[in-house]
Amino acid sequence: MNPSATDAGFQWVAEWEPHEATWISWPHNPETWPGRFDKIPAVTEQMIRILSEVEHVHVCGGPPESLQAARKALEHVPNVTVHDIPTNDCWIRDYGPTFVLHRDRDALGAVRWRFNAWGEKYHPHDDDTAANGRICERLNRLGHLRANEEPSMPSFPSSLVCEGGGLETDGLGTLMTTSSCLMAATRNFGWSRADVEQELRRMLGVTKVLWVDGGELAGDDTDSHIDQLARFIRPGIVVTAVSFTSDDCNAPKLTTQRKLLEGMTDARDQSMEIIPLVTPPPRMIQGKRVPESYCNFYLANGIVLVPMFGYRETDDAAASLLQDLYPERDIVRVDASDFIWGLGAFHCATQQQPKVSAIGDRSES
């Protein structure tokens, strides 16, 4: 059995805790956005520029031409480092490491899940599969990962096939996920639910796993990642996706999910407040539904990066609700109406690196 991050004193912290950096992969695969790829680098650059104002941004440049394009676009943007790390696609949330902090908050670690492109759906995925190890190697080269300046970051490889978008935590021991993702035979054949829960406890320090099953967005190729369906706002408060209209094909499943959440308790054995976050009306692209959800927001230092889909009523409602829920943060709207052609939005395309508290404010350049 692989070494346990939990036994080494590490645990996964909530996304709203202070970040040292955000990791992003520069887009380069035109098959991900058929007929729309030319618009995607500009959206990615916009996202990076916004994030670089509040924390450092590390960018995996991808293959040589993509690396060159990223460096050219970002060469004058402060607080950004472009790395020569190859990728197959941009969804770093799913193939990047899940960063963990030591319980004393004085050291950074990383959990490296196995990645097989959402159950062998897309090929090739060799560079994405190797990216979490390469990111860890790069961070070790940069250093400043521990308060005592030790040069290496502990890395914990897991035998579980898992994507970061399939996991959500309150930072106090509760984890939300879905059976359709983690229990899929194309990911973890032969694993029992107890096996999966044990591995999540070993690697993330969680004490209770909530299987938020039943919800589904038409067009979602991830087998229902939780970050499209339900998100912790803070301990004890969850937003959950609900359909814009009752005749939407997603409506019955999202209603089932909401009712399930309303009957659950967290790791503290307390009931949770469940707040509906309305999804946009259905959008068809080339004859297929795309999985638009405002749950795919990303928390960075002092801001909430919220995808906008071009429907004024639901865009405004989502931004207003998230502002009410995060009064201390700025709500930053970014148009995702082209980005969603790739079947994901901004949470899917980012991965947070939490701040080691004893280091203070610093960034690599």
Short précis:
With 365 residues, the chain is of the alpha/beta class.
Topology:
Elements: E1 10-11, E2 19-25, H1 40-52, E3 56-60, H2 64-74, E4 80-83, H3 92-95, E5 98-102, E6 108-114, H4 117-120, H5 126-142, E7 155-161, E8 168-169, E9 174-177, H6 179-182, H7 185-188, H8 193-204, E10 208-211, E11 230-234, E12 237-242, H9 251-262, E13 273-278, E14 284-285, E15 288-289, E16 298-300, E17 303-308, H10 312-325, E18 330-335, E19 351-354
How would you characterize this protein structure?
The chain has 365 residues and is an alpha/beta fold. It has a single domain (10-354), classed as L-arginine/glycine Amidinotransferase, Chain A, CATH 3.75.10.10. Helices cover 26% and strands 24% of the residues. It contains ten helices and 19 strands. It has helices at 40-52, 64-74, 92-95, 117-120, 126-142, 179-182, 185-188, 193-204, 251-262, 312-325; strands at 10-11, 19-25, 56-60, 80-83, 98-102, 108-114, 155-161, 168-169, 174-177, 208-211, 230-234, 237-242, 273-278, 284-285, 288-289, 298-300, 303-308, 330-335, 351-354. Strands 1-5-6-7 form a four-stranded mixed β-sheet, with helices on both faces. The protein has a four-stranded mixed β-sheet with strand order 4-3-2-19, with helices on one face.
Helix and strand pattern: EEHEHEHEEHHEEEHHHEEEHEEEEEHEE
Give the structural class: alpha/beta
The total of helices stands at 10
What proportion of the residues is helical, as a percent range?
25-40%
Number of domains: 1
> Which parts are unreliable, with pLDDT below 50 for 5 consecutive residues or more?
359-365
Radius of gyration: 19 Å
The main sheet comes to:
4 strands, mixed
Proper CATH architecture:
5-stranded Propeller
Q: Please indicate the percent range of residues in DSSP E strands (runs of 2 or more).
A: 15-25%
By CATH, the topology is L-arginine/glycine Amidinotransferase, Chain A
**How far is the N terminus from the C terminus?**
38 Å
Order of adjacent strands in the largest pleated sheet: 1-5-6-7
Corresponding CATH superfamily? L-arginine/glycine Amidinotransferase, Chain A
Q: Which CATH class?
A: Alpha Beta
Q: What is the global morphology?
A: globular
Number of strands: 19
Mean pLDDT: 95
